[in-house]
Write the structure tokens for this entry.
Amino acid sequence: KQSMCVCDIIDILNQPQPTISRHLNQLKTIGILTSERKGTWIWYSIDNDLSDWCNTVITALPEFNPELV
């Protein structure tokens, strides 16, 4: 399972850390993402138990990066 550090997500999206963290937490709360704390940062990844239909929607997005799954 590939994960991405919240610090990298902040750089990619060019948004403030509180905004990114709030949205990532919402995605985690509804079961789309999982997270793991490693030192100072939290690493996020797409939940392995995500339903097939949801995986289909995510992978259909033009901005989707398959290396993140």
